[in-house]
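Lab channel / #folding
Pinned by the channel admin:
"Please post every new chain as: sequence first, then the structure tokens as a reply. Keep commentary short and put observations after the output so the thread stays searchable."

First post following the new format, from NK:
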Amino acid sequence: MTTAPRIDQVFDFDELLSEEERGWQQRARAFAQDRILPIIEDDFEQKHFRTELIPELGAAGFLGMHLSGYGCAGAGAVSYGLVCLELEAADSGWRTFVSVQGSLAMSAIHKYGSEEQKQQWLPGMAKGELIGCFALTEPQGGSDPAAMTTVARRDGDGWVLDGAKRWIGLASLADVAVVWARVEDPAYGEGGKAVRGFLVPTTTPGFTATPIDGKLSMRASVQCDIELDGVRLPADAILPGAEGLSGPFGCLNEARYGIVWGAMGAARSCLEVALDRSITREVFGKPIGANQLTQAKLADMLLEVEKGMLLALHLGRRKEAGRLTPAQISVGKLNSVREALAIAHEARTILGGDGITNAFPVMRHAANLESVRTYEGTDEIHQLILGRALTGLNAF
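Reply from TO:
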């Protein structure tokens, strides 16, 4: 029986990577294949998140790997993207974990924290001994953070936080939450309502995180509602370097960059199983891959995977050069997730009825990608970001 070649053998993408970058990718691929793939279908079915894998991710250097110092690997942007690619090829939930831990929570502390805050949290987070979450989105919606209702008010020498957050990854498992709130204090600008970030140990009285149930997507991952009811913090809980919405947006762009790569991992996985099935499944006396319509589907899927990979690589090189713009990240996030979903749907048609079962990862990837499409900016938000870049007019 003929065996399908690897997708990357068709395009020789590896030739565009350095030896170090290929090393990171190979380690992430081995981790995904050895530690995630054997258990992910059952975990998805059982709504189970394997916390025991977190220290292993830390030992591999994947947590906060794009950051420098404090036990972080200091890897390049392309290396980080390749790790996201390989983890999401296994399951979006595990790339999401690495993004929440590294690109959101750790990046917020690394970018905006005091030296004391960095020393307190980052080394343990890099090892996977401590878990962080990033609490920005609120129950009424995530696309308009300027309208957040969570507030922080001064009380003596400290702060008191009240409010609610929703769809916060890892919150019920986290040791520390990066909580964004409006500061009701005239000393903080913006009419006394400036957005600031706070580090909230999750054992603080008044902090409650409740996992969201009933999910049909990201079932092997954890997302939560958070209630903040009179959460009392010391004065030094505030992130000193984050002022206004540029603070959380700086972290969101880090996570969006990882999605550019990660979604292409899910797309590649779907294409690989469809390609293999097209060669091994015979109908009307021959493999279905010998039919022109099937080959056209495979060719179109390959085209979008390789275009997405080249776009991700281009953005990674720009990021490493310090020239990556938010609009360019929006191009990547919008394209990668949109095309990954289309590829998952097309791959399912090649798999036939079997494609809706967990014998293949395609329906799981498609379900997960619906979440990826929504978080870190919906399609519509990224279209508006690009529309503003094109016209100079703000349609938000």
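NK: The chain has three domains: 7-131, 133-244, 247-391.
TO: also worth noting, The radius of gyration is 21 Å.
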